[in-house]
Amino acid sequence: MNSNHEMLEILLCEIKVVLGENDIRVSDNLIEMGGNSIIAMKISETLKKRDKILVNVTQLLGAKISDVELSKLKG
Q: HSE on the CB side for 69, CA within 13 Å?
């Protein structure tokens, strides 16, 4: 099972890929970095399917990346 830190790193890497930007930190906010709700949903679905990680999309849209609630899917 991935630790919260590992899941956060996976989320951060996916945000960098989707936005095409390498200079993104966990203290940044997705919206302020150029993201939007469609991008947030895309990131959420990718992590759910590929990594079995659930992302709180509402938090992803409004909080610092480090504050986004992440959990591992069971099974």
A: 5
Distance (Å, rounded) from C-alpha 72 to C-alpha 75? 9
Tell me how far apart the alpha carbons of residues 35 and 68 are, in angstroms, rounded to a whole number. 15
Collapsing DSSP to helix, strand or coil, 72 comes out as strand
Whole-model pTM?
A: 0.94
DSSP 74: P
Query: What is the secondary structure of 3-66 as a DSSP string?
Result: -HHHHHHHHHHHHHHHHT-S---TTSBTTTTT--HHHHHHHHHHIIIII-EEE-HHHHHHSBGG
| Residues 34-45 pLDDT 10s | 999 999 999 999
